[in-house]
Amino acid sequence: MDKFHQKPYYFVNIPKLMEINKDLIKNVARNARLGINEDEAEEFVPQFKEVLELFKKLEVVDTDNIEPSFHPVVIKNVLREDTEEKCLSQDDALKNSVHKKEGFFVGPKVSL
Amino acid sequence: MNLQNFSEKISKKEISIPEHTRSILKEVKMLNERYSYFLNISEDLALDQAKNAKGKLAGLPISVKDCLCVKGVESTSGSRVLKSYKPLFTATSVQRLVNEGAIIIGKTNQDEFGFGSFNINVGLGNPIPKNPFDEERVTGGSSGGGAGFAQKTTHAHIAVVESTGGSIVAPASFCGVYGLCPTYGAVSRYGLMDYANSLDKIGLIGKDCASLKKVFDVMKGHDPKDCTSISFDESSSEIKKVGLIKESLNVDPLVKEMFLRKLESLGYEVKEVSMPLTMKHGIGVYYIIAMAEASTNLAKYCGIRYGLQEELDDNFNAYFSRVRDDGFGKEAKRRILIGTFVRMAGYRDQYYLKAMKVRTLIIDEYKRLFKKFDVLVSPTMPLLPPKFSEVESLTPLQNYMIDQLTVGPNLAGLPHLNIPAGFVKNLPVGLLAIADHFNEAKLFNFDR
């Protein structure tokens, strides 16, 4: 098993060198839990290719020994006293949902 | 009317706050029929706040970009996926202004979740705002509603807005107003519907710099609810040397000419500087980071706890996919897909991590220049506000390239300000002034 196939299970169906086509777009959409129709998938193919071409141009930049900047300024770890603070009441937390029952959110069924 | 004159008239009782509030609400409604600057007008809240407004900003009407939460007022970030969502709290940035007597008049139009440079990528069912100088042209985006209204209103007013890659200065430039995007972390992001956490900044748009400064002073500083927010001392406002980014002059010649004329009129000692890396790779780095972060941020919109909700008649994968299909517009979908792709195993290092490393080099490129220069300048936008018919035919990549001059300071988290430079063919041109981190004072002082 090569290194790529040791990645988590939900990525194993992504081949290593991939052609950008409709199946790939639909696969990514499945991973993102985003419904798209055939026409959209078709439309996204050339747009994906064009944008990824731009992204690939970064390969020429030498970044050996360069640290990544996950933020633009230095962020320090901030801690607070471990004391109880006010938070939303259960009623308030449920206020924006129509899917609720007996003080809980109701979700879709989990069986496939 | 600028804030100082307004506040003086309030204190001398020459202006009544309730009357002024009613008057601007009337104007908002009238303009909205034609220009679509507001997605929601908070009339009841405004009239209520007007009854007892006290403080440094007493009676000042503020419009709030739709991506910022206002308690009890529908806030959707311009997206159908958040339809009917009424936040249970107000964003810190907005609350601080309200605490000093500001009055919220409504939620302003924007590209869905901020995904656009023209404000044409509005959420499903939303109207597209129109340029205040020509209704056939774009306002610029993504804060198009706030910028357009700031230009059109005859009242004292400040727009509270947000930028990820240029969403404040781009519409400010196209609408001919001042737009400040502060240093990353200078203003609390608590209560902002995130687009890209490492890039988002809350700022202001208005007709003059002194008013922006006064409101910014109230809004800035550390907030315990946002661990990336920082309090800082005001920097020196002295400007000795200005660097002109030479690669930025490859723009519409009419824009270039007006920009240079304005720069010359300010009378600074100006020297050309070069930013080869930022100008060549800024767009690529920006869109990788922005899309990767956006795709994770938008994962939470799934039709259960708030926003668009449908019948729960499928299993969870099918339900989430369907709600998100129904709720997101095309550009949001595109960014979720590309953002998900560049984070996938096998690609993360090639795209996302690479972009984060090049970002370090871009920050270094700016930092080296700020050792010698107080302010860097370029045109804000490479073209005059285009017509709707002209932007319709652009591919997504061509759209993204429009951000060429604004992504750099956004990637580096540097404060930047659009300054109206003049008019060409009755359309506004903007000058972009960029300062080092936490040096907003230099920007407020730049247009003398």
Q: What is the H/E string of chain A?
A: HHHEE
Largest interface, by Cβ-Cβ below 8 angstroms: which chains and how many residues each? A-B, 57 and 74 residues
| CATH architectural name of chain B | Alpha-Beta Complex
Strand-residue fraction of chain B?
Answer: 5-15%
| SSE string of chain B | HHEHEHEHEHEEHEHEHHHHEHHHEEH
- How many strands of chain A? 2
Describe the structure concisely for a colleague.
The complex is a heterodimer of chains A (112) and B (448). Chain A has helices spanning 22-31, 38-56, 90-94, and strands at residues 100-101, 104-105. By secondary structure, chain A is mainly α.
Features:
heterodimer; A: 112 residues; mainly alpha; two-stranded antiparallel ribbon; 3 helices; 2 strands; B: 448 residues; alpha/beta; Amidase signature (AS) enzymes; eleven-stranded mixed β-sheet; 11 strands
Q: Topology, pairings included?
A:
The complex is a heterodimer of chains A (112) and B (448).
Chain A: H1 22-31, H2 38-56, H3 90-94, E1 100-101, E2 104-105
Antiparallel strand pairs in A: 1-2
Helix pairs in contact in A: 1-2
Chain B: H1 3-11, H2 17-35, E1 38-41, H3 43-50, E2 61-65, H4 92-99, E3 103-108, H5 144-152, E4 158-163, H6 169-175, E5 178-181, E6 201-206, H7 209-219, E7 241-245, H8 253-266, E8 269-273, H9 276-297, H10 316-327, H11 330-343, H12 349-370, E9 375-379, H13 388-391, H14 396-401, H15 407-411, E10 416-424, E11 427-435, H16 440-444
Parallel strand pairs in B: 2-3, 2-4, 7-8, 7-9
Antiparallel strand pairs in B: 1-3, 4-6, 5-6, 5-10, 9-11, 10-11
Helix pairs in contact in B: 2-3, 5-6, 9-11, 9-12
